[in-house]
Amino acid sequence: MSSTLFLIQLLNGAQYGVLLFLIAAGLTLVFGVMGFINLAHGVQYMIGAYLTFMYFGVTGNFLTALLLGLVTALCLGLALEALVFRHLYDRDHLDQVLATFGIILFVNEAVKVIWGPGTLTLPAPEFLSASLQLTDNLLYPVYRLALIVVGVLVAAGLYLVVTRTRVGMLIRAGASNADMVSALGINIRRLFMIVFGFGAMLAGFAGALAAPVFTLEPGMGDNLLIVAFVVIIIGGIGSIRGAFIAAILVGLIDTLGRSLATDAMNLIFDASAANQIGPSIASMLIYIFMAAVLFFRPQGLFPAKGSA
Q: What pLDDT, on the 0 to 100 scale, is given for residue 308?
């Protein structure tokens, strides 16, 4: 692999990792604080992308569309929490899985009805549409670099909120012992609602940022949800720091692995066989990494305080 291609894959891996973090951050908070398995978290990512696309068509301004999409995603997340999810908190995990899977089916079909089953594209904002000369042979889109920077800033801000504010203290306390927090006079249901709404908004934010990079299609968040669960297991359930580090690692392993695995197989097999075996091995790398982490650190790399 050339140095230019390696740098491209490195940046693409970081970008993918940042998007995974934005999805996994809300998921790890919901799972860590509430013990709630929300398979429908991926549809919030999809909704964020489609809402940004819709508002861009109305306003013609990406930042305005992004803001409106975030507000709407937050409202829809709170509506789902009030109408569906809060009635499942005291139910077993099987009920939660079945109910949230039903929401996935419903929302995916609703998206097909509203926007159609075909793929859609959203242009990057004009002020970020240029490319930056990183090396003599490499022009890299400014928007993708901005996406990485924004993701890192959001991760830092979220970490500070969780570790340095009263709301963060309550979230961490709720993750450790929700009954005790409730006994101290804190409205635990309201805390759950805040956590759920914020998690939905983060997933919607990830979808909005990803819209100019990937095509929009029904079910676009389903595969990412599986990888997001891998991220929170590797990082440690309930840990923001763990989710960020694990997301970057998973993004790099997945992106670099798709190129390096084929190159490695070329050393053993002929080109035709290597091109078939390499991608198959690459698709397993993140799950092999997860298995290795669980073998040595069952609680994850950076478990939330009180969970280990």
A: 38
Contact 264, 289 (CB under 8 A): no
Half-sphere exposure of residue 135, counting CA atoms within 13 Å on the CB side? 9
- Amino acid identity, position 244: F
Q: What pLDDT, in 10s, does the model give residues 23-46?
A: 888 888 777 766 778 888 889 999
Percent of all residues in the chain with a pLDDT value above 90, rounded to a whole number? 27
User: How far is residue 155 from each of residues 30, 45, 69, 233, 245, measured CA to CA in Å?
Assistant: 16, 17, 20, 18, 10
The per-residue pLDDT for 175 is 64
**DSSP at 115:** H
* Residue 114 to residue 186: CA distance in whole angstroms: 40
Detail the DSSP E strand segments found in 115-220.
131-135, 138-141
| Helices vs. strands in the chain: H and E counts, helices first | 12, 2
Residue 51: the pLDDT is 94
Domains in the chain: ranges and CATH:
3-296 (1.10.3470)
C-alpha span between 78 and 203 (Å, rounded): 13
Would you say 65 and 56 are in contact if contact means Cβ atoms under 8 Å apart? yes
Residues paired with residue 140 on neighbouring β-strands, in sequence order = 132
- Are 282 and 254 in contact by the 8 Å Cβ rule? The answer is yes
